[in-house]
Amino acid sequence: MEWKNAEIVVVKVGTSTLTYDSGKVNLRRLEELCRTLSDLQNSGKKLVLVSSGAIGVGVGKLGLARRPEETEKKQALAAVGQCELMFLYDKFFGEYGQTVAQVLLTADVVNYDRGRENVQNTFRELLAMGVIPIVNENDTVETQELEGHNFGDNDTLSAVVAGLCGAQGLVILTDIDGLYDKDPRKEPGAKLIHRVVGVTPEIEALAGGAGSDRGTGGMATKLKAARLCGDLGIPCAVIAGDDRENLYRLMAGEAVGTLFLPPEPGGERSETV
Question: Residue 66: which residues within 8 A CB-CB, separation 6 or more?
């Protein structure tokens, strides 16, 4: 996979990368992300950003002690947080000369032929105009992610968006280096798997449980996204989001995080390195 040759790249960033434990926005990391993506856009790539964080930012904005359990409250927090999040994205991307657009999606729209076509047309025109679309699920009206169903998380959404955009690659920025052969939080000797060809049940068994308290995903949802991308013939990389240089290293062809490649024709055989 030659990332430097990829014209359209979807980048997904999770809540744990964007916020502190308090729920407040990690402004330094957000600014660095916007600067890096702006630089990559200037280099000639067309970028789409799938951003979690609306509910987490809403929690911080309203000064709540914890993320609520009730769906209705999470919907309200998403409305507050999405506004704040887009304000910050517009501010930081604007400082580097980039124009952004908000795209809020729901599964019923994407799964409906006419709606899917409209979404594809919008992405195509935005990218042609040099605009960076910033995508999230519309949590205010769509409760699937909030209740743990499918669409149903932004890792999956990012794979769907990669297909809609005709992307040549998906990069998932997260709070772990990639896929390990054991849980690195419990096993000091766990080894990072740099390359996976085909996501099989054996690979999925390495995923473990859910992610951070502030997000809805975990490695399992990232493997699901990698599998969906593989079905579409799109490579997917899972890398740590706390170092902006990781994106540059990946685009330069260095081994960063875990690269998931589409399965070999004719089988589900998985190869790991």
Answer: 59
